[in-house]
Amino acid sequence: MAQVVLHRSVEHKPGTRGVRVRVRSNMFRLVRDYEMDFYQYDVFVKPGKQEPPAIGRTRAQALLYRLQLDRAEIFVSKGAYDGGRIIYFTQNIPSGTYDLRGEDQKVPQAGAAKLQVRLTQAAKFNSRDVIAWAEAGRQDVINMLQIYLRQLPNIKYTTPAHQRNYRMFYLDKTSIPLGNGLEVWKGVFQSVRPTLQGLAINVDTTHGVMIQGGSLSDVLMARFSLSNARQLDLRENDPLWKQIRQFLRGVIVTWGGATGCKRQMTVAGLVSQAGEFIFERMADTVPEPITIKDYYRLTQSKILRYPHWPGVKNKAGTIVPIELCTIVSGQLYRGKLPEGGQASQAMLNSAKGKPNHRFSEIGGPVLSEILNYNENDLVHSGMRIHPDATPVEARRLQAPRILFQSEARVQSGRWNVARPQLQAFRPATAPLWAVVIFVGDRYESVITRFVQNLVRCLMGLGVRINTTWHTERGTGQNTGQTMERLKKMHGKPSFVLAILPESAAEIKTVVKQWGDMMAGVSTQCCRIDKVAQKAGDNQYCNNVALKINAKLGGINSTVLTPLITEWLHKQPTMIVGADIGHPPPGVRDRPSVSAVVGSMDKHLTTYSYTAKALSPRLEFIDQLNHMLEQLLRDFREKNKCWPQRIIFFRDGMSAGEFEQTARNELKLIQRAFEQIKEIEESKSYPKVTYIVVTKRHHVRFIPESGDTSNVARSGNCLPGLVVDKQVTSPVYVDYFLQSQDALQGTARPSHYTVLCDENRMSADDLQELSYALCHVYASATSSVSIPTPVYFCTHVGAYHFNPHKLRDALSQDDSTTASGDDNDRVNVQLWNEALGERRTALRTKLFFL
Fold first, then answer.
1. Which Gene3D superfamilies would you find in this protein's record (predicted)?
2. Which residue has the higher pLDDT, 147 or 104?
3. Do residues 685 and 673 make contact, with C-beta atoms less than 8 angstroms apart?
4. Which terminus of the chain has fewer CB atoms gathered within 10 Å of its CB, N or C?
């Protein structure tokens, strides 16, 4: 049975293939200057003899900081506090209860006069042990060092964004307006990482999209492009109501209380016509009904200008009219920026600095002025952060051969299919096809020109396509009927090309629903703004042609490396990608979606997929046994044999979930084998290699200054960079692979962690396979950032997040969700039944490209 095996790096030899190069990382060594004892204390904060108030992390940090200043004769060394129940000191503080007096308006009034902090010593250890334990990967000790590292920023930066992620903080003086009530702030990330060289601090610059602070009504009008105040007079059945509710859920607002002090709450929902809402207040011990507008008029002499506007409410039921609320500055926007919009472009522009500039910022202002490590509590605890970024030994792997009908020329991870013209490795056929136009007649000539150019590009790829096509016209009001008219064609079309307006999300949804779910016909959608701009552009038309050929079941190109020739071609092997996609923060009526994709041929170009809904926020794929069984049967049907090896790439997992998630999923993989009678009876189970692929991390590499042999035009390292020494984990077998150049900004390598390897693959073989798989993304003319099966999972998961009006159909059933104040439970079984009924007829084709 497959098991999680934690290979120590000393037992696993690093790779040797490729050209040796030197790079710099954004890791800074943490060294011990002298020995020091650490004392851990349990913390309990309460106002007098009452129960603890709801004191958040920021308030608690400020209180403990002030206590240490007020009682400096006791607290000679400053403690490192986690904002909850643990604080560390480098001196032996007497356990006991300490009184704290003073003015702190953020603390509830009941505890403003007198607060008590009780400290109880829980543990003692030496800095020598701390370093050894942290380097061995003990998470509790690493957490202690993280607390010391962030102590100064915790006091200095108190925005809500920092409260939610203590490794990240943002600088309000760097804000850049994005429009639509949003702005971008520059931020700094810091984290302790155990490495083969010892402990290191990973420091990086970052950018975050924030909701603009200020009047809530002004922000809402900007966010939703409202031109006058009357448009905020909304009811629950208004389409805008739901958008505003989702936007505001979890947002922190303030308003003026009856005593004149600012009050604060986290928005949980909306209430219509807030000014007219009636509640009961106590008048001389007798409940008295009163409207909210009358309450503010009588108690604060405030006249509501817009009593019919909605109000925001928190979980406790407190309701405040929108016009009285102010959004607290520094809150991360959790939604998705409109693709191609002004906000997206402004965000890209703010983050696309050259790699050298990014590293200069980290090594200069960030380390000295912002993080100020010389004054950091960690430094006063006998440790020191080395000021220079860690130099790293690396290698640059040779790119795989890219085979069309002839071999492509690969330069810096890119190739061109038009110069010279390359024919697809296996072209598809399209004897009958259609163009459906959803824009006006004024675009007639440009559409004809575009379609003719597209046909030429398809023929250049070798696709056997009819040079005449059927045309239909429609509008956004009759999209479904327009698509249904295609059934009157003399035969089923091979594919449908849809020309859409510039903003056409609804039309695209209906087109995809008809093609992917109902008719089983491949569809390719193109926006008219792109068509008008690129009608004569061969590169654009070739890219569309590559998508169409792949959707029709053709193979654009394949890769060839010594490993693939000698290893994969000789023994049936299935490469699997798996991922879980979660609904956006604040969305509680949709499940998470798991997607699993498996290769079906030795060329690693044909894939089958399966997708399942699962409970929101569940971190392992609980139906993996059934999903993998389906892929195994698909493989058997196509290849007339079962795979003997499975290389399983798992995306979407944080380091803290590695072991538990891998153990759960490896058991389910085993169960999939047992569910197939033929495999179970033979007892010859496929051997499994289980690898976690991580994209969301902050480790970066740039070429060592003066090394011109490893510099791409962008200033990044050339594609193929692999790092498996020095800054990798002392616990797991892992490596960083930068498989592509970045057109803008600093390239981000993907991080691969091997948790199980029954196939006993060498480091070189693992790295070569990972790199090769970044070159088989069907519609790309460049390498991608992660292995193609994992990339496909991202698309499949996104596809089922909005499965063509599936959610609307489900929302008509009262059993889909059960709403409550704290949580909305999703009926996963109902979602899966619906997904099963609407399963695409194109499952073994790349319909989602």
1. 3.40.50.2300, paz domain, Ribonuclease H-like superfamily/Ribonuclease H
2. 147
3. yes
4. N
